[in-house]
Amino acid sequence: MESKLRKAVDEVKKLAKEFKAENGNSSLRIPNKDFNLWLVNSMIQQNGRIGKLEATTKILAVLFCGIVIKLLIF
Hints:
The chain has one domain (2-73). Helix content is 91%, strand content 0%. It is built from two helices and no strands.
């Protein structure tokens, strides 16, 4: 999923450069580009945080199950 988001960022950057080359600094389009870049970058960061949280949760679940099983056996 992260590669799709990175492709989206690259595409938005490319489109913004093309627009600037054709139209100069239009006050209507540049904020849209900036907002889109911010949105995609936020999604990339959240995707990374979600991955870390999932990994941590799985590790804690395994450790918790191991502790419970060890306590039940002894």
